[in-house]
């Protein structure tokens, strides 16, 4: 496996054209050659944080197979740089590329806590779990500076409202105090993404995420503090991490996880081109094999958008992956279950304080 790529510390190595724009920007070879001769940087590779001001923050999820009904995202774009990330395509709606722009142009919603409070205190709202990071990671590096996720957790705690979190960053442990208090009322569950036990694989797949060691430690710390943890072994990519299913399941179970989930990679929209470019640069010897095996899981295409089959795939390789997940659950999670979140407390706290009568 080669980690040599033209842009260090990033997943995507290109900015693909935005499908909503007629014109596109391209870095020409003659310009790159000129910069090299002059000793200039053709690309400074800096992350920029751009404030935006949406009118709402909680989204109703219409997709029937993603396991959530409501989600919210404090940030659009994600500096973690996971090459396979399905959320990349959403950056095109904001006028950016799904490639490098997704990792380097991070849109920040500083008003998220106020918008959340306004949403869950509506008279006609009845408590239902809201998932933080339905699209992009709420504990990505931007959170160190802006602390928006922590402020939102404080809102959930104030109103005793159920919340779920999806992340692959150990930064979540910064908020252990709030998470523990939410857990005492059965108002929180956490989903930690772990895609490999190999640090070399992690570095090329997810360049700016927490190390595997830190993620396993995060699962253990959360579990030891009474916070229910599900681990997402996702996505499973044939011939990259598919051989690690049973070892990963064993490791996260021993760390205290109560369950696992998985998806099979699908390269929808612009991600097909981004991933293909990336794997040809980082794993040239196995690029064609991996791409063909992904296609075999989706009827000959890199993507399948059909509800019900898009997450689990089809064909022999997909069946082998799904069978291994089933075996892992039987072997390592037989007597474990994630508890259901408490939906009953919120009504009593809707005005910010407990009602006596």
UniProtKB/TrEMBL annotation:
InterPro entries in the cross-refs: Elp3/MiaA/NifB-like_rSAM, MJ0683-like, rSAM, rSAM_sf
SUPFAM superfamilies associated with the record: Radical SAM enzymes
UniProtKB keywords: Iron, Iron-sulfur, Metal-binding
Domain Radical SAM core, first and last residues per copy: 64-301
Domain of life of the native organism: Bacteria
Protein name: PA0069 family radical SAM protein
High-level lineage: Bacteria, Pseudomonadati, Bacteroidota, Flavobacteriia, Flavobacteriales
């Amino acid at each position: 496996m080669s980690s040599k790529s033209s842009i260090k510390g990033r997943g995507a190595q290109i900015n693909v054209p935005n499908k909503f724009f007629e014109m596109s920007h391209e870095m020409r070879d003659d310009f790159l050659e000129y910069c090299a001769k002059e000793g200039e940087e053709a690309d400074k590779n800096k992350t920029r944080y751009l404030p935006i001001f949406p009118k709402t923050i909680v989204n109703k999820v219409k997709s029937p197979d993603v396991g959530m009904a409501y989600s919210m995202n404090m940030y659009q774009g994600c500096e973690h740089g996971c090459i396979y990330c399905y959320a990349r395509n959403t950056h095109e709606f904001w006028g950016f590329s799904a490639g490098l722009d997704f990792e380097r142009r991070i849109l920040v919603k500083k008003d998220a806590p106020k918008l959340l409070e306004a949403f869950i205190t509506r008279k006609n709202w009845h408590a239902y779990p809201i998932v933080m990071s339905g699209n992009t990671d709420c504990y990505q590096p931007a959170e160190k500076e802006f602390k928006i996720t922590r402020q939102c957790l404080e809102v959930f705690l104030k109103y005793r409202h159920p919340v779920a979190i999806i992340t692959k960053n150990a930064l979540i442990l910064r908020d252990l105090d709030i998470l523990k208090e939410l857990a005492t009322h059965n108002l929180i569950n956490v989903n930690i993404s772990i895609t490999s036990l190999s640090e070399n694989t992690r570095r090329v797949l997810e360049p700016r995420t927490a190390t595997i060691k830190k993620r396993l430690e995060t699962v253990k710390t959360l579990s030891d503090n009474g916070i229910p943890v599900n681990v997402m072994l996702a996505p499973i990519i044939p011939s990259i991490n598919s051989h690690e299913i049973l070892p990963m399941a064993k490791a996260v179970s021993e760390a205290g996880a109560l369950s696992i989930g998985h998806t099979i990679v699908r390269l929808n929209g612009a991600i097909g081109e981004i991933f293909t470019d990336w794997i040809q640069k980082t794993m040239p010897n196995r690029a064609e094999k991996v791409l063909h095996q992904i296609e075999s899981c989706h009827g000959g295409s890199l993507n399948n958008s059909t509800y019900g089959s898009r997450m689990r795939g089809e064909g022999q390789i997909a069946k082998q992956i799904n069978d291994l997940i089933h075996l892992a659950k039987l072997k390592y999670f037989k007597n474990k279950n994630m508890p259901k979140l408490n939906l009953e407390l919120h009504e009593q706290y809707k005005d910010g304080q407990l009602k006596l009568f």
